[in-house]
Write a structure and sequence with these properties.
435 residues; alpha/beta; 6-stranded mixed beta sheet; 4-stranded parallel beta sheet; 16 helices; 14% strand; globular
Length: 435
């Protein structure tokens, strides 16, 4: 007989500094520790020593919610709300985020002789990137706290997501973007959803530094990933992935690294699942950066993760064009705890990997393709071995950055022909299109 349980209770949370461990009762506007200015993380003290039954009940509860049509149950974030900060139902802002597909990447899997290669396509979120999972939680917290205006600095995707969720709940949004460095799909989204868009003549790091001062002076709630509630939403990708893999962790999860919050959130999700007894093993979480924007790679190589080495970022994968990543300490901890690797890949490697994913119907934006480029490097070095299971986290939708694909390059240009059947057939025969 199937045993049914009452829903497990949601736990209360606290904010703790990742560096000095001080607890923050009320976070300041920049979400920094009042003692040492480092970042904060959400902790759930009640979980310590939680009975094993707690974990088992969670699986049942989450599974049952899949059949429910209530907004907070069909959301791939709020379905896992026992492991999120408690928020009243009326303050939950959702666009039906999460619930993204896990796609087999078969040709590359065979080529690399892996046991399986899967892409968790976070670009299938409502605004086309993984940001939606985190913004849903953090903006719900903003609403709970009584804010009417939210803000972010962004390489593009965060701004699209912030603008959409703000519009959804009737809040104002302000976004600061590095002028001329944001893919047009992302800029168009921020404008469509009615954000106040300010483009600054600087890079992402410069925009975030300005915004940190703005939130000290204006009543706007900061939605960048320094906000620890963002990571709570983003960690749910680990929960959803484990459900999809029947609670058996893959050997490797590979994620691109920019400001380094997503890798941190993913790691937090897996560590919590293990703490609660929902999974037995952790995957190795590896972080891939572009060669021209590789502060974490240099930090790990040159001082083992003790002190951040900043760089002046340059890459056509504009989403991860970041030289001074805020969440570097959290990411170093995840690399160490999961024994993951940190690698950088060239522009050419990103370009080819993106085309390869596209050719398997798993198109994504350039930053996301860095994961496949990184996997190839890790397989060559022997870090990823034959027969292993690998999950790539594809962070953004292909349509976010169409300029990248349409750039003039011999092998990727489309043909412009007269609307004449014979001309079309001749051209298709020339390129053996149907073979
Ligand atoms: N992939 C995509 C598509 C992104 O948009 C980002 C970050 C990342 C990867 C890196 O994630 O910063 O958590 O390490 N985009 C941010 C933005 C910075 O403003 O949209 P991260």
């Amino acid at each position: 007989m199937k045993t049914t349980f009452a829903n497990p209770p949601a736990a209360t949370h606290a904010l703790r500094c990742v560096h000095c461990g001080a607890l923050s009762a009320k976070p300041e506007p920049r979400f920094r520790c009042s003692e040492c200015s480092e970042l904060l993380e959400v902790i759930y003290p009640e979980w310590t020593g939680a009975p094993r039954e707690f974990g088992l009940r969670l699986k049942e509860t989450w599974q049952a919610r899949k059949d429910s049509s209530l907004g907070e149950n069909s959301s791939g974030v709020w379905r896992f709300r026992e492991l999120l900060p408690q928020i009243e139902r009326s303050n939950i802002v959702t666009l039906g985020e999460g619930n993204t597909p896990l796609l087999p990447i078969e040709k590359t899997c065979r080529f690399l002789r892996l046991g399986s290669l899967l892409a968790k396509h976070q670009g299938m979120n409502p605004t086309g990137s993984f940001k939606d999972t985190g913004i849903s939680v953090a903006i719900s917290m903003a609403k709970t706290t009584g804010f009417k205006c939210v803000c972010c600095a962004s390489t593009g995707n965060t701004s699209a997501s912030v603008a959409a969720f703000a519009a959804r709940t009737g809040m104002k949004s302000i976004v600061l973007l590095p002028a001329g460095q944001v893919a047009s799909g992302k800029l168009a989204q921020a404008l469509e959803y009615g954000a106040h868009v300010l483009e600054l003549r600087t890079d992402f790091d410069g925009c975030l530094s300005v915004l940190n001062q703005v939130v000290e002076r204006l009543p706007a709630y900061l939605l960048n990933s320094v906000n620890p509630y963002r990571l709570e939403g983003q960690k749910t990708v680990a929960f959803e992935l484990m459900e999809q893999l029947d609670w058996r962790a893959p050997d490797h999860v590979i994620v691109p690294g920019g400001n380094l919050a997503n890798s941190s959130a993913l790691g937090k999700g897996f560590l919590e699942l293990r703490q609660l007894g929902l999974i037995a093993d952790l995957p190795k979480i590896s972080i891939i950066q572009a060669e021209g924007a590789n502060p974490l790679v240099r930090t790990m190589r040159e001082n083992g993760g003790r002190e951040l080495i900043r760089v002046t970022p340059q890459t056509r994968a504009t989403a991860i064009r970041i030289g001074n990543p805020a969440s570097w300490r959290k990411a170093v901890a995840v690399l160490k705890e999961t024994e993951g690797a940190c690698e950088d890949v060239s522009e050419e490697e990103i370009f080819l990997a993106k085309a390869e994913l596209g050719a398997e119907g798993a198109g994504c934006e350039p930053a996301s393709a860095a994961t496949l480029a990184g996997l190839k490097k890790l397989a060559r070095s022997g870090f990823v071995r034959e027969g292993e299971t690998v999950v790539l986290v594809l962070t953004g939708h292909m349509l976010k950055d169409v300029e990248y694909t349409l750039q003039p390059r011999a092998e990727r240009t489309s043909d412009v022909l007269e609307p004449d059947v014979s001309a079309v057939i001749r051209r298709l025969e020339q390129i053996d299109a149907c073979k």
